[in-house]
Amino acid sequence: MPTLNKPNGSNLNNESKSKIALQIENLNVHFGEGHDRFQAVKDVSISVAEGGSFGLVGESGSGKSTVLRAVSGLVTDWDGVIDVDGEHISKKREMSYCRTIQMVFQDPYASLHPRHSIDRTLSEPLRLHKFDNIDDRVNQALIDVGLGASFRFRYPHQLSGGQRQRVAIARALMLEPVILLLDEPTSALDVSVQAEILNLLSDIRKKRKLTYILVTHDLAVVAHMCDEIAVMSHGEIVEVMDVDTMRHSTPKHEYTRELLQASEGYQPEA
Amino acid sequence: MTLNSGTPALKQGLRAWLTSDAPESRFHAQMVQVYAGWQSLCANKLAFIGFMIIVALILVAIFAPLLATHDPSIQDLKATLLPPQTDGHIFGTDDSGRDIWSRVVYGSRITLFIVALVAFTAPVFGLLVGTVSGYLGGWVDTVLMRITDIFLAFPRLVLALAFVSALGAGIENAVLAISLTAWPPYARIARAETLTIRHSDYIAAIQLQGAGRIRIIVGHIWPMCMSSLIVRVTLDMAGIILTAAGLGFLGLGAQPPSPEWGAMISAGRTFIYDHWWIATMPGLAIFIVSLGFNLLGDGLRDILDPKKAES
Fold first, then answer.
1. How many domains is chain B built from?
2. Structural domain boundaries enclosing B211
3. Neighboring chain A residues of B215 at a CB cutoff of 8 Å
4. Residues A103, B28: C-beta atoms closer than 8 Å
5. B66-121 pLDDT tens trace
6. What is the pTM of this model?
């Protein structure tokens, strides 16, 4: 194994004076029991500044989505430290945690309940958290993601992939979270729609001052969206770099170089 | 269609309202869904025939006093064993001189009572057991599924017989016995559906929004299990009617003089060579109603198939 360029919270953000929104230290995630026990994430440490956009890249199975699922609470078999706004997160999540962190899933065809109308999908979190003005909030949320109130009483099967992903983003924003976890939000969409969704996400981040953690295997998406990038391979972070380093293809680690080369190989020759 | 008899413009407006792809209210959206379902039911001829048979059964049960020509329990020993179409007895009379047509008409109420009670108890219980077991997993799943296995290990009629003989004969106990034996397959179906969706992203999304287990099971998992359960229940209805008739036939269901179809066949059995109509008429009624439920169930399977609706 090559030596790892493991980041640690102190020297990573030595330049930025802003608050740390999310800090993960020595996160380990396991799946399965007994002989089948498998470590999906090994000693991952990252820290994301408030209002920042952090990209996790890596090939399939490198554990990048698992990090998100541990942060969100969907995976419970983890150890290490996860700090949100300077507070340790326990394994059992409070209701208020839902209003801090929300997640957008990869496949908009699988992430909306097929038997629930858009109205129900968007208003249910509001009812759960006893918000007022539910009607206005749902309409406004639909306008904010560029759909408009006429979509409110439709069902997911009446929408296109891009429209569904907009609904999924609206749902994640309903509880007004400060951190948004994006699990490959565009990989299931076709190329023309990808750009629309990415622009929408960028706009929303600017407008609401959100913190993003974006998981993807698409380096172009990361270059477009993120300030800082961590490269994962086999459950470990091999390199953390800023987006300029990646653009100039001057990463230190060999695996990162391979990954960058591979991504260029898929681009059509002009 | 025939929903309103207004001017063509109004008709057109209603049709447009019912097929709108941008509903304006919750009620409007539901009406659009209902209308789409109704249209696919009408498009499927066999399902529609089945549906009409069920509607006819319900109407007969409601209007039994108007349709019956005689009191179903009054005996007339001067007019026993009359063949059909004599002296105003459409289906003839039985060995006690009771009008068979009137008894069949009133028997539809008993059949409907059994069907409705079983349809509202067994699937609901099975759904509850199956989804709780599938969603919670672990020891809850193990315990509930082993209990289900125990119930599944007995043939349905034999288990129902055991229950009825323990509880005592009678229509309520027959319904209870049928429900007790009918729920395990529904639990199995509901559990299988739950297992396929419990790790899906839309369940994960509502978990992240802080929904509790009960809300997720009732509000998010049940709707996904409904279509396969409805199809299964409709197809099982024929079997349930036959089981009820079977219990009646064996003397453990409805008690005389109640005009239950199975009990009527049982009574007519002794005369079947000389007086065929006594057993045949209620038999035909059972046959038609079972056929109706089967056709409807087959059609609903095509209409409600989630895999088809997704595309």
1. 1
2. 48-310
3. 128
4. no
5. 999 888 888 888 888 888 888 888 898 888 889 999 999 999 999 999 989 998 89
6. 0.83
